[in-house]
Design a protein that fits this description.
Layout (H helix, E strand, L loop, with lengths): L1 H20 L25 E3 L23 E3 L3 E3 L8 E3 L21 E6 L3 H4 L5 E7 L15 E7 L7 E6 L4 E7 L5 E3 L8 E3 L15 E2 L1 H5 L10 E4 L4 E6 L2 E4 L5 E6 L24 E7 L6 E7 L1
Parallel strand pairs: 1-2, 3-4, 10-11, 12-13
Antiparallel strand pairs: 5-6, 6-7, 8-9, 9-10, 13-14, 14-15, 16-18, 17-18
């Protein structure tokens, strides 16, 4: 009898020790809802959190059907990743002391687009259509996010079935609240500081701080105009820093907006083919009749090269 008691005590002690060090595995099949607890690992086919259908009760209708929607998760409340106090439907806080993006959106294989769609509140009822839709996406193939996009393009877009919507605004707060700084109309007209552009580009010179700003054209020296590698498109406008005049390219070459004509810049070293125009004059560093010249120094090929630019 004494041996039996000793055996029972040893067996109970072994069971108690094993319960402390052994990992417990529980399969819940009938108990609903699941009891409170902390699990080392939890695997489920679908998951529903909260009253997703809004009927005031929490039951099986608030979770995806595991037969038709395996892997789906429905969450009725706020979700925080890296935070215990989410103030919106989804709040993602980046890792401490890390340069990694807090969130990554990666296109599906092999060439699925990566992006975010923004839709008006009738989208769920009218899916896949909605009155207004916007998107920010990266095209991984031609024609994604827009008919004319190319692979690698970052696309920002807006559509609307009810005009005059479908416009795009870039806004910022300069101390006077959020105001439109750049406006792109649905027909392609662009406004800077203007949300009703009257042409392809409409600039409001008055800033929000009641100061004025103007349009600054590209600034190039006269030799830069002459060096242009190919004939510029007609209508190109630049500011000639040598002549200190605004120049426009026409079918007869560069013209001063004030009515003058730019005769070109010529080098005394014509054999190098450095300049895009040949010097038509007998003497070097000279201009045709009716033109006046301004001598400058250029530095092609690392050598000092006297140059004259001719104007009318």
């Amino acid at each position: 009898m004494r041996k039996i008691l000793i055996f029972i005590v040893i067996s109970i002690s072994c069971l108690m020790v094993s319960s402390v060090f052994a990992q417990e595995t529980i399969t819940i099949t009938t108990y609903y809802p699941a009891p409170f607890g902390i699990y080392r690992q939890l695997v489920t086919t679908t998951l529903g959190v909260g009253d997703n259908n809004g009927d005031g009760a929490i039951n099986g209708a608030d979770a995806p059907n595991p037969g038709t929607n395996p892997g789906d998760v429905w969450i009725a409340g706020r979700t925080g990743i890296g935070t215990t106090d989410p103030q919106a439907r989804l709040v993602v806080v980046g890792e401490n002391n890390s340069n990694a993006e807090p969130m990554q959106i990666i296109g599906g294989s092999p060439n699925g687009p990566a992006g975010v769609g923004l839709h008006s509140n009738d989208y769920l009822a009218n899916h896949p259509n909605s009155t207004y839709s916007g998107y920010l996406g990266l095209a991984n193939n031609n024609g994604q996010w827009s008919n004319d996009s190319k692979a690698g393009d970052l696309v920002i877009g807006q559509t609307a079935k009810t005009p005059p919507g479908g416009n795009t605004r870039f806004v910022s707060d300069d101390g006077n609240g959020l105001n439109t700084k750049v406006f792109i109309k649905n027909n392609g007209d662009v406004g800077i500081g203007e949300d009703n552009p009257q042409g392809r580009l409409d600039i409001n010179a008055l800033r929000d701080d009641n100061t004025y700003g103007g349009l600054v054209p590209p600034r190039v020296p006269s030799t830069g105009v002459a060096w242009y590698p190919n004939p510029p498109p007609k209508g190109m406008i630049v500011f000639d820093t040598t002549k200190q005049e605004l120049m426009v390219y026409t079918n007869t070459g560069w013209k001063s907006v004030g009515g003058g004509s730019f005769g070109g810049c010529y080098s005394s070293y014509l054999g190098w083919g450095w300049w895009p125009v040949n010097n038509p004059f007998t003497g070097h560093l000279s201009c045709p009749a009716g033109y006046h010249g301004q001598q400058i120094l250029a530095y092609p090929m690392g050598y000092v090269d006297p140059t004259v630019c001719c104007y009318k």
